[in-house]
Structure formats: C-alpha cells, structure tokens
Amino acid sequence: MVLNNDKSQYKIAILGGGPGGYEAALVAAHLGADVTIIERKGMGGSAVLTDVVPSKTLIASADLMTRFSAIDELGIEIVDGDDKYALRTNLHKVNTRLLNLAQQQSNDIKRAMEKQGVKIIDGTGRVKDRNTVTVDDINGLSYDIQADYIMLAVGTHPRELETAKPDGKRILNWTQLYHLEDLPEHLIVVGSGVTGAEFASAYNGLGTKVTLISSRDRVLPGEDEDAATLLENVFERRGVTVMPRSRAEAAEYNEAGDGVIVTLADGRKVAGSHVLIAVGSIPNTEGIGLENTGIETTESGHILVDRVSRTSVSNIYAAGDCTGVLPLASVAAMQGRIAVAHMVGDAVKPLRTHQVAANIFTAPEIATVGVSEKEVEEGKYQADIFKLSLTTNPRAKMMAVNEGFVKIISRKHSGTVIGGVVVGPRASELIFPISLAVDKKLHVDDIAEAFTVYPSLSGSISEAARQLHQML
Q1: pLDDT band at 342 (very low <50, low <70, confident <90, very high)
Q2: pLDDT tens for residues 408-427?
Q3: Contacting residues for 307 by C-beta, under 8 A, at least 6 apart
Q4: Of 41, 104, 285, 335, which sees the most CB atoms within 10 A?
Q5: Which residues pair with residue 126 across a beta bridge?
C-alpha cells in the first residue's frame, strides 16, 4: 500500500534509531510519509552497536572454540605441536571484529534509510507537546520539529548496583566488555538471566574461568525448566561454577588492584579478575518529556502501550524495550511496523506476544515459541506435550552433539500446535517450523507429514510431532 496524496504529507517524528525506530521509519517512508528520526549513537541504536550484534558476534567466536573441543570424538588430530587443542582466543581481534561489524551494520541501516528519504538527525529529542519534538543536535543547535505522529523508541540502558559501579576496566556492564584487550582470567557474572547466561557461556567457550552468581534457584529462571536444567548440566561439565540462591551485594577491587572481590548478601566473598554486572536494564524514559503530554508509564518507567503500540496519547506511539513488552529486537521491529500501519490506516494485525519466537544464544542454544509447559501445568491451557532428546537423532550423533531436545506442545483433543522448545545447535533456525505451525494454527500431523531431509536435526521435530498424533 502507498498512502493517498492527502496522507502523503503526514509528518512522523521518531525518537530512537534502534529496531523499533528504524523499522518504523522505513515502513513509513515507503508509504509516502515525511519521516524524521533522531538518534544520538548511530542507526541501529544499542541493539546494533552495543547489544545484539556485538554480543552474538562474540558468541560466534565462542561457538567455534566450543565445537573445537569435540575434535577428538570426531577423529581429528592436530599434528603440529604437542598441545592437542592448540587454540587460544585473541580477545583484541575478536572485539575489533565485532565492533567493526556492528558499525558496518549501522552504516548499512543508515544508507537504507537515506535511500528511502528518511531525514536523520544526530542528536537527542524530547517531547514538547503532542505534536512537537524539541531536538538538541550534535552541533549544539536546539530547535522544534512539528509532527502529526510521534514514535518513542528510546530503548534501555544497563541497570547498575550502587555498590558495584561499572568502571569499564574490571567492573563491567555488558556494553563495556567489548573494549577489553585481554581475555579475563576469571570472570564473575552477576545475574543468571538471558544476558548473564549468554556471556557466561561465551566466555567459558573462549577459555575464561567463569563463576555465575544467581539470586534464584537456577539459571534462566523464566525459561523452560528442562532447557534451564540441561544448560546448568552443560555448565557444570564445562567447568562453569554456578552459585544459586546467592545475591551479590557489592563488587570492589582487591587490595592489589589486579582483581575484584564480590561480596554476597550472606557475607561470602568471591574473588576473580573481572566482574560483569548483568542485573537487568532501565528504560531511557527520563528526560524525554513524557510529563508534557501525560503519557502513562509503569512503576519501572516503561511506557504503557496497547497491542498496536499506541500510548495513552492517541497520536504518540512507542516501540521496543522502553515499552517493557518483550526485550527482543524482533518484537521492537514488529511494534514499529504495527504502529506505522495503525497511524496511516493500513491493514494492521495487533501484536500477538504468545506467538513470538525467542532464542538464547548459549551453547547449546535455547529457542522457544508460544505456550510454555509451565502455563500448561498451571492450567492455563489443556495440552499434550512430547519431548524428544537429540541423542536419538542420527545427524546429532554424526556431529558429536550430546545435549539437546525438541519439545512440542499441542492443544488437547484438537492437536493444534500451540508451543515448542528446541535446545541444540542452531536452535534459532530450527524453531522456525514450530513457530510457523503456531502462527498458522497447524496440526501436529501437518508437521509430521511434511518431508524432512535424512539425516537432519529437523527430523526430530517431525518425529516429536508424529508422537503427538491421535488416532481417530
């Protein structure tokens, strides 16, 4: 759809150039709107420059190291040198590569937006009233931009502990890790959510001794229990020390200044060379003028939005992590696209969070979509569940994959696929057929009857679905 002439003069101002902001800008410009986007860091925002792109690039290096550990089982030997596993991580090169890649991705996004006619302002913005954004650009100029619609896609920043302030040297948040020159000897990770688990897995793969401090009973407390338990077992086998039910209270340098000491709430202390504070994030909603329009927020500062990304002010929308819906780049992008469609009267399908596919980039990866087993156990859904270990999969055996499983959840009696979990190599790719089944309300037989390649990891998805077949 392209906007009618009477709509082509719609002016849209977007605060923030992350996935929510730039996706909204691209769609709006394609539809003929006059779009201005204000971003202080660079196109792609934190997702591209300091979060998703660099962290997953780091993980790609760690994955190679992790796979290398299986060469003996695969019958591969290194003939040069006495050390059978003669790899080591050059963290400076790893970090240089990932930062360059992130900048390249940012530049690509900027070029795509300029090609579509989006006006880009380097600077910060704040809402003056429901139709005005005040800009402070990098040249020191301040001016107002008028808009029919305003989109807020301002993202988040790492939460800090008052007693463990990151300094970028030994006490770090996840945006500062990429500036380390040398691999930490012993990295203490505070926080066992997705970010903490991913970095613990990555640095363990790169060759660092890792201690993971979790205030909860297990790692990934909000994820599938079978997946979290499997990951904990993998961590234990690979030498990661997990400390459950341990709340960090402070982090400080040791007396020599060449390491850190983390103090726990019960008085125990943990010593390491570096500490990563991964205890969540805070929305960047302070100082952007929300009070000028009465936009409603939660107690945590997240912007309240409905399923079409609209705030409590009818012509102001919000997308991405600042809304607190789901902290995923894919969700931010979808929120942005939905918002623009709703603004201009295009066909719009409200956000359906129960159909969002997500992935945790640990080794092995953990991918989920739809209804969870916990929701079934709580009685929210009546469903059948089947879990199939990848240890029975011939391709997994060939690849020396010893951990992982496929789990499919189908509605009881009808057999409609409503959820699934994949744990294993490239689970982020393998979850797609289950995600498609959830989105299109496919029957387990639809998956079971589709051809899969033999041998393949995807064969286990077909087999799990086959096990849920119900006789007529």
Answers
A1: very high
A2: 999 999 999 999 999 999 99
A3: 338, 350, 351, 352
A4: 335
A5: 134
